[in-house]
Amino acid sequence: MEAAMGLMRRMPPCHSETTLSALLSLLPHHSSDLLSQVDLPLQVLCDVDNGKEFILCEYNRDADSYRSPWSNKYHPLLEDAPYPSSELRKLEIEANDIFAIYRDQYYEGGISSVYMWEDENEGFVACFLIKKDGSKSGQGRRGYLEEGAWDAIHVIEVGLEQEGTMRYCLTSTVMLSLTTDDESSGTFSLSGSIRRQMNMNLSVADGHLCNMGKMIEEMEGKLRNSLDQVYFGKTREMVCTLRPPSEVAQMRLPDS
Fold it and tell me: Could you give the CA distance from residue 49 to residue 63 in angstroms, rounded to a whole number?
């Protein structure tokens, strides 16, 4: 299992579904662990009741149906499916409205969904999802990307720490893939994923959404910086080392 997870961490997100399928056939006795621990690129479905798109993931799935955060219905329809309590559903609706504003301000488009459900420790779990299509046909496109996708998954476990204080355990995963095809730069492809965790004890006086929103905003800033340093920074360093700009190459030439 440890070797399988190590392999999944090293595979590009665009190949993760194929790799997971192969691992499930090789390790059928670990299927439940693999499906619960491996994050795949997010898929999108349209809620026919209100015409809005929502994101599919393991956290809103039951059997082969997925619950929409907009209508609170499963697609396709499913009998005896689990639903959040009425109180948690109200919080889920408010979270989707607020997170849509956050998505537009930071991502200039894309699709977001928030799902909540009760856990076994008298608390609840919230999942915040963002998918941004950066390809030529994507919304809010700027630049020269031929293909590109940003998938962000934030799962927050909320439990009572002490009177008036809640413990928030955030696990965030970001999957990035992009391909350029330009005459000046040629074809270039880059993809990868990164996962980080954060735990905080916060007062409930400001409300759950305020506390969770601050944690997600801080975590996404850290993840963007890490991706910039690890992927783009290292790639830039390697390209400039192997193919230095003409002015740098001239400086390296010995005097004749």
Answer: 21
Those residues with Cβ within 8 angstroms of residue 8's Cβ, 6 or more apart along the chain or in another chain: 16, 19, 20, 23, 38
Provide the CA 14 distance to its chain's centre, in angstroms: 14
Residue whose structure tokens are 């200039």: 108
**pLDDT tens track for 114-144:** 999 999 888 999 999 999 987 766 654 555 6
Angstrom distance (rounded) from CA 8 to CA 254: 47
Task: Output the CA torsion sign for 142, 173, 165, 208.
Answer: positive
Q: What is 74-135 written as a DSSP string?
A: EES--TT-----HHHHHHHHHHHHHHHHHHHHHHSS-EEEEEEEE-TTS-EEEEEEEEEE-S
Could you give the CA distance from residue 143 to residue 141 in angstroms, rounded to a whole number?
7
What Cα–Cα distance (Å) separates residue 135 from each residue in 12, 54, 181? 17, 19, 11
For residue 75 the two structure tokens come to 């697609």
Q: Which residue has the tokens 């696990």?
A: 171
pLDDT in tens, 36-73: 777 788 999 999 988 999 999 989 999 889 999 999 99
User: Can you read off the two tokens belonging to residue 196?
Assistant: 């980080």
